[in-house]
Amino acid sequence: MINKHLFKPRQQFKILVQSRSLATQLNPHPFTPNGPVNSSKEHKDGDIRNDWNRNDIQAIYQQPLLELVYRAASVHRMYHEPGKVQLCTLMNIKTGGCSEDCSYCSQSSRYSTGTEAGKLLALDPVIQEAKRAKNAGSTRFCMGAAWRDVGGRKRGFDRILAMVREIKGMGMEVCTTLGMLSSEQAIALKDAGLTAYNHNLDTSREYYPEVITSRSYDDRLSTISNVRDAGISVCSGGILGLGEQQDDRVGLIWELSRLPEHPESFPVNALVPIKGTPLENNTPVAVEEVVRTIATARIVMPKSIVRIAAGRKMFTDAEQAMCFMSGANAIFSGYMLTTDGVEKDQDAELFEKWGLQPMRPYENVEDTYENKIQAAPSPLQQTQQA
Ligand code: SF4
């Protein structure tokens, strides 16, 4: 990583261009004992592909871990500025009482978890919280409601549209997660200024029925399609530690990689088992599986923001650094929807320790590291200009 205090911006770019060129010459994965992991000769790392073969993704996932991290870090630098991490704040605007049976969730009315059902919050406390989040450095404000869908909640939906308008007007990115969405509702959210909509696939298609039965995998894909068609960024990822196997984590990434466009955001949650849910006795997922999932997603969907979401509190600072090295470039700071998050001052220390910097609002794939490198003068041009 480049120490920004030692080098001026142009020197930084020069060094980065040179190091990238060297990395390319060396081939990012020459020492993989299992041989080349990309069986398709016409593709190279960093290509944006929607025709991924599940076996190829499996081979990437199963590489020796440090080779995988190195390869993911190389792809990360093609599209993102290393060390830049997006800070998001999450707020539960309607808690508990949900009709769905997601077996990990404390907000489902089917389980005795102690979470009480609340009403949709009024506009004012939400706006106040968004202002606090902005003042603390967050650039994205995400609002979650524990609902199966938005249907039949006209007054509530209108209030959420007002929240989106106000928070967008504050210069923040706005994200919501409100359950299943029709195309008309997606368009209304887009018109209000919504940046992104979160709707996770959670796991592979095969393992999904072990976790949720009250709505199907295709229901989820349909909502994602409505969001995409409305011109809203898609945030869709999964939860690790549901009892799934490696193949299911690969299956999750594979499903998302084959969408007409990759999700702009891929959140990786580590299950925090909640008493009273069917998964209360699950063993927490090993951090190396989290790192493998992040690194594989980075390689398969190079432009996406990869987000460390719920469960981050279980990981040490060094383990989180490994996640950042593997291509993660967003975190939730503060509370999660149903589990403890990491306090903002702890994150400030984490950023200081590892030399990380918060991303600006709307600093995403349109403002990529790759574009900046290409826009920067080449070493030859710099010599001519000198
Ligand atoms: S995850 Fe969402 S849809 Fe599922 S039970 Fe919890 S609040 Fe309801």
Automatic annotation (TrEMBL):
Pfam families: BATS, Radical_SAM. Keywords: 2Fe-2S, 4Fe-4S, Biotin biosynthesis, Iron, Iron-sulfur, Metal-binding, S-adenosyl-L-methionine, Transferase. [4Fe-4S] cluster binds at C98, C102, C105. Signal peptide: none annotated. This is biotin synthase. Its EC number is 2.8.1.6. It comes from Wallemia ichthyophaga. Residues 25-49 are annotated as: Disordered. One of its GO terms (biological process) is biotin biosynthetic process. Its cofactor is [2Fe-2S] cluster; [4Fe-4S] cluster. Transmembrane segments: none annotated. Residues 40-49 have a biased composition (Basic and acidic residues). Residues 80-312 form the Radical SAM core domain.
